[in-house]
Amino acid sequence: MPVFDGCDISASRDVIDDPMDPAHNHPMRETFKGSFTQQEPIPEEGIAAALAVMQHGRLHRYNTAPGEVAEAALLEEEFAAQVGAKYCLAVASGGVAMTTALRACGVGPGDAVLTNAFTLAPVPGAIAAVGATPIFVEVTQDLTIDLHDLAAKIGQARVLLLSHMRGHICDMEALMRLCDGAGVTVIEDCAHTMGAAWNGTPSGRFGKFGCYSTQTYKHVNSGEGGFAVSDDAEAMARAIVLSGSYMLYDRHRAGPPPEAYAQVKYETPNISGRMDNLRAAILRPQLRALPEQAARWNARYRVMEAGLRDRPGLRLIQRPAAEAFVASSFQFVLPDWSAEAVQDVLARCLDRGVELKWFGAAEPKGFTSRYDSWRYAPSAPLPQTDRLLAGLVDMRLPLTFSLEDCELIARIIRAEVGAVWQARAQAAE
Q1: How many CB atoms lie within 10 A of CB 20?
Q2: pTM, full prediction
Q3: In the chain, what are the domains?
Q4: Which has the closest alpha carbon to 389: 74, 51, 137, 143?
Q5: 304-347 pLDDT, tens per residue?
Q6: What is the pLDDT of residues 40-51, one digit of tens each?
Q7: Closest CA to 114 of 377, 383, 384, 381
Q8: What is the DSSP track for 206-261?
Q9: Distance between terminal CA atoms of the chain?
């Protein structure tokens, strides 16, 4: 039985039909049998390191033996070096990274924070968690923040929490010129862009803070976890105290010098959100392998892209040359389709084993929700974003899929989009 990237591809399909026959005239159809939520195992090196931590029992990052450097401290040093940041803080989740960064930038109750309307609930959730209110900005057809709408709203807040949602990066030089000119501090949500870059600069290195996630479905996996990076000594000192360092901040080898804490240690509350040594041990070898893993994700993305290109009624997302992305998910748009037609495509694909998500649904479902469903974050209608989300389809792209799996999935989506497209055309005649 042939195996690709650890997946037995013989288990991934039934009898093959004509992939270009949208009406399914062939009596046997291809069906995908894999899982869209199954991740690769933790590397053996990470398992061995985790076992060592469990055997000595010092899981808390500040519980170290004489002369020992905690796994969490080593992880921070290594990630800071990897992205070219002066300082790095490892925390319990990407959400903790964002709330900590917001607090460290002085955001509090009654403040407004700009953010793009196409994102996931933890982003407005982080804003709401510090007592602030999001001001949603329109998004473009290529899923990035609309700089024209941002320019129109830039005077309404002093902080932008920019979400690189689903790994799509806007023109960061243009965004930073706009924000710097208006005195707006940028915090980057890089949950989907760890390992990505814009014009050679790593994602997360444009704003005052870059925030990352190590949750299971992200680019490195510790179940939950995250990072905040910065070059600002005082802001990072506040973040480290906020994270729950007590007065042990000198154990942060990727932290600012002692003088940065001189005042902030007295006026910054301890809001515990630390990463432990067990998760840090699991993550360190995964970070070293990230460039190779990124290449594997992107190979799968390109297979999906090739399989769906030039399908009438389906629009692919354009990726600019300046964007070096890490494609752990795949998106396409069914532009101006009715809700019923989009749901028909999703149901038909699911019947063949392909699990797609839709950002146009009125009610939140699972991880997928729309900006106007977050009732803790009041919003005005955003016509451009609404039109985009109405046809936006999303799919996880785990590395447990082989390239042949991706070819199959693309054929199934292509056929089902074609079937519904053809039915719509016939109905319109």
Answers
A1: 9
A2: 0.92
A3: 44-288 (3.40.640.10), 290-428 (3.90.1150.10)
A4: 143
A5: 999 999 999 999 999 999 999 999 999 999 999 999 999 999 99
A6: 999 999 999 999
A7: 377
A8: SSSEEEEE-STTSSS-SSS-EEEEES-HHHHHHHHHHTT-TT-GGG-TTSPPGGGG
A9: 48
